[in-house]
Amino acid sequence: MATGLLTIDHGAIARNWTALDRASGTGTETAAVVKADAYGLGAAEVARTLARAGARRFFVAVAEEGAAVRAALGPGPEIGVFGGHMAGDAGLIRDCALVPMLNAPEQLTRHLQALPGHPFGIQLDSGMNRLGMEPADWAAIRADALAAGLRLIMSHLACADEPETGFNEIQLACFRDMTEGCDVPRSLSATGGILLGPEYHFEITRPGIGLYGALPFAQATPVLRLSLPVIQTRIVEPGEAVGYGCSFRADTSRTVATVAGGYADGILRALSGRGTLWSEGRPCPILGRVSMDLITADVTDLPAIPEALDLIGPDQGVDSLATAAGTIGYELLTSLGPRYARRHIGAAAP
Ligand SMILES: *Cc1c(COP(=O)(O)O)cnc(C)c1O
């Protein structure tokens, strides 16, 4: 088989949820964000693992993702939709019992007209200017929303992983201000906000990336291993070049392995000539360009040619790979391509 193997450790995902649940403190419910196919790892499998670990509330970005999570979990757990109630979504929201986080007065009107009595939350903008009602919108519809059975008020931090900016305190004060006197559960914090401390936790926290083993949750248990099979090796003599553009040229004799995996699989071209594959603690620098389906790496110093080289694993975590590629763990995970064989270790049975 010449596709990469992505191994997903569900025990680690459950441990990370439990650790973030503990960090959220007693009296705070810890939800789980499984948008974007659980950050590329498989929403159905991951949601079942998290439900088994104790999560009773999930969040997705759009209603279609909510439908997939509902199919995996069955009735019971609450599934919130950050994008709110968009035109055409009423059927999915009703049939899959989704809870839209309404972002604008028009969404509230749409929701109350299409699905009177159906639960909803409100997302407030506390300074990020991305999603959520502005203070004036909120003031205008607040009484209606509360009377219509509002069940959750949330907002989102723009700089949770950069406490030194001082912007978290500003958003916290704004969120407090806007929700004063509402007897409704509140949620402000994703992974980064949980780590800021108890004043950011309110009644519900919503971690995503930390569950999947990446920053800003530095204490996370690693979740992934990505192994790329070696298809072929060759000796490259001094003066010979490797790959598109001949961008690597050997000055000494090198043993070069060609492995399956490329930018079509989410392995960013930015790793060309500077990323590293690994074999049991030994680095194998990427030589030349990452191409669509293939990577060439220097295996000269390995004692033997292994069947596969690791791009992600014990020697190189998601965040160090992301840094080498000039990006962040979030983008790296959600770019993991559909072509990998995915092996779910310790997943809950469907
Ligand atoms: C993605 C997202 C989260 C989860 O954020 P992480 O940083 O991955 O923990 C929480 N809330 C909202 C609104 C989001 O968009």
Give structural notes.
There is one protein chain. The protein has 350 residues and is an alpha/beta fold. The protein folds into 2 domains: 31-211, Alpha-Beta Barrel (TIM Barrel); 224-345, Lyase, Ornithine Decarboxylase, Chain A, domain 1, CATH 2.40.37. It is 30% helix and 22% strand. It has 11 helices and 19 strands. The strands form 5 sheets. A 7-stranded parallel sheet has the order 3-4-5-6-7-8-9. Strands 1, 11, 14, 17, 18 and 19 form a 6-stranded mixed sheet that branches. Strands 2-10 form a two-stranded parallel ribbon. Helix 6 links the parallel strand 6 (98-102) and strand 7. Helix 3 crosses helix 4 (63-73) and helix 10 packs across helix 11. It is elongated, with a radius of gyration of 23 Å. It starts with a strand and ends in a 5-residue tail after the last strand. The mean pLDDT is 97. The site of pyridoxal-5'-phosphate has 12 residues, from helix 9.
